[in-house]
Structures are given as structure tokens and as C-alpha cells.
Amino acid sequence: MPHTLPPLPYAYDALSPVLSEAAMRLHHEKHHKAYVDNLNKALALHPDYAAVPVEELLRNLEQLPENLRTPIRNHGGGHANHSLYWQVMAPPGSVDLPPSLKRELESAFGDLEAFRARFAETGAKLFGSGWAWLTVDATGALEILGLPNQDSPLSTGRTPLLLVDVWEHAYYPDYQNRRPDWLQAWWEIVDWEAVADRLDQARPAQSPSGEVRASRQAGLEASR
Ligand code: MN3
Hints:
Helices cover 52% and strands 9% of the residues. By secondary structure, it is mainly alpha-helical. The two termini are 16 Å apart.
């Protein structure tokens, strides 16, 4: 099996009381695992792509065989999105916002409260299932996006920095139908250091000349 369920970087009860141990177990052991299993099933029919990192597949969706695109978009997206999600959360109140990231958010969105309000509103207003995202594009600009289902910003050339799950499975066990309450409580468990690290890593790789896209395509070819 080319893809495996990554262990959580903390205990199942580490995000309590924002997320209960039962909710975390269900989300990781059942929902995330199902995306991994279905991704592996789809790749079993396309062994040429089995060794390609899932992020690389998502960046190059349009270049994939037509009958592989939807499984990668849905199950590959589900695997990549959840893998990143676990990494950008931490025990409640354990990580402060680094001053450098605070300045970035203020510069892009006016002030911190405006950023938080827009991000939460994006998640609250997303119809059906999906994720709210903070992303950085190829020019280095920060952008908040709401994307349906398991769609990834990687597929439109953006780098994801932070994401919150607004599928019902993500919050119903603890918050039932109160999605805005979930989005409010979730700020307590954001790992801002991880977000700042991701922004630092995204910036040097960026190029205004289109070299990024070319090197990504080369990366896909090389890893096959
Ligand atoms: Mn989920």
C-alpha cells in the first residue's frame, strides 16, 4: 500500500476540551483512514502513480489520466488535507501567535480580528461540506478561501498554511449543528508556530517567472 495513515502528532485527548478524545478517534481512525484506503484502491489501478507524493498528484490533477482525477481529488485530497490539519493544531492555548506572523496577517487583512472574522465567516458560510483555508499564492500574497468537499488549494497553485474542517464529521460529535461555535472554539487549538513555519518555507520556493509550475511538472515526471 503506497499511502499509510500518519499517526497524530499528539495524544487523542490532547485537544480536549475543544475536541473530545472520542471525536478525534472517530475523525482520525475512521474518516481519515477511509480516505487513505480509497486512495490506495484507486492507485492500485494506476501503479505508475503509486510512488508519487499525494501533494504532487494534487498539484498536477489536470495532467493525470482522466479516470484517476476524481479519486485523487476526493480521496487524495481527503488524505492530504487531514494530514496537514493534524499538524496545524496543538493543545488548547499552548502556542502563541509569533510576532512575524501577526504582522503578516495585519498587513494582509487589516488587523487580527478582521482576519479571524473573515476566516470564521468563510467557514460558517461554506455550503455543505468543505474546509476554510489560509493560503499563500505564487506572488507571496495571503488569501482566505472556502473550498468544497476535499478540494485542495494545491490544485490551483496555492500553498495551504492553515485549514479548518467544516464537514459535519469534524464537529458534530462535540458541537452538533453549531458550526459557528465550533469555529470560535477552534482558535484555541491553532498551532501558530506551524503556520509561521509553513509560510517561511513557502516563500523562498516562489518565483514570479513561472519556474515553480515547470519544476512541479518536472517533479511529477521524476517521481514516476
Ligand atoms: Mn474531516
